[in-house]
Prior knowledge:
Strand 1 and strand 2 form a beta hairpin. It is globular, with a radius of gyration of 23 Å. The chain has 14 helices and four strands. The strands form two sheets. A two-stranded antiparallel sheet has the order 1-2. Strands 3-4 form a two-stranded antiparallel sheet. It is 59% helix and 4% strand.
Amino acid sequence: MLYYLFDYLSDVGFPGARLMDYITFRSGAALLLSLFIALVFGRKIIDRLQLMQVGEIIRDLGLEGQMQKKGTPTMGGVIIIISILVPCLLFGDLSNIYMILMLMSTLWLGTLGFMDDWLKIKHHNKDGMSGKFKIVGQVGLGLIVGLSMYLSPEIVMRENVESVDVENSELVVTHRQEDIKSAQTTIPFVKNNNFDYSYLTGWMGRYAANGGWIVFVLVTIFVISATSNGANLTDGLDGLCTGVSAIICVALAIMAYLGGHIIYSSYLNIMYIPGSSELVVFMAAFIGALVGFLWYNAYPAQVFMGDTGSLTIGGIIAVFAILIRKELLIPILCAIFFVEDLSVMLQVAYFKYTKRRTGTGRRIFKMTPLHHHFQKPGNSGIDAILQAPLRAVPESKIVTRFWIIAIFLAAVTFVTLKIR
């Protein structure tokens, strides 16, 4: 809203009003405001949650320090959501389709997670909402985002084109002059890193382009569901999901800024997406919200985000990556989320398989999701294939090491843009 006020002041010649025209200024203001809201009002929200006795329900899994967390306020994800929405409403261009989709995704998944947390508290158990309802909510969001990108005339791109300057023997990268509607995305480790989903539907003849968009929508649904659930599973240690997500978001914000700037896009030889630079404002607010929340969520946590936060965080990361056409980089950038997902799926599948074959179920890991595997000592009476490490790793050390891995993965993700 301040964006429109300053736009009016700029038209009447008010000194300094043109600052709001700069993405960098609005992004910095959004980050600082979201950080302030999370730090100042976050404390008030935590106190309110304590008064309401909205405490985390803990199951005794034999992990060191686990039962000490019992009663810690949960549903702290509302701090993150409020800290995102207020700066975006003040400093964002609310007519921008990318900003609209991000705000809608935040509210959609925030509501889904809030309902799940509320049911857990209401029934005093860890079951919450049925997994089927969560999937329906995630699929619904995937359909909305995918179809919006297909149908909206404002969501376009300009393809990067390589040519050789014969006189100087240099490779020159330019962008086509016209905006096009295309289901193209960025694919790593390929010389021409633009991949069109319609390549997969070439057999459909003149309907290949429409078929490509159908594939794109299906990929969107899968990416949102997998990333949202992965973030949910990663939220098991103090500061783990928050810190890893903040690192991922910094990488995505840089990619959005580069992809929304035609000069930087040419330098990196990536597609240019007109209007997508507005996403940097949203992501700056998101980063500020995460860092502010981490102030209270770091070990020992004073508040947990609950599904209100974790489902929202994963969904925001997924939708953001899809909007800047970087969803195929998610398996690298968000590898921690997917490894957590995979560890649970492998554990359940192997347990069921061995129980059916031998009558006694065996495990691959001492405990899943994967971060809990490191919390249990080896040879602890659990029939698991992987017993290392033999000594339980302290929670704070596990979290720090996961953060280091997240930084490494972010760096590798950027490297893929130039290694072809």
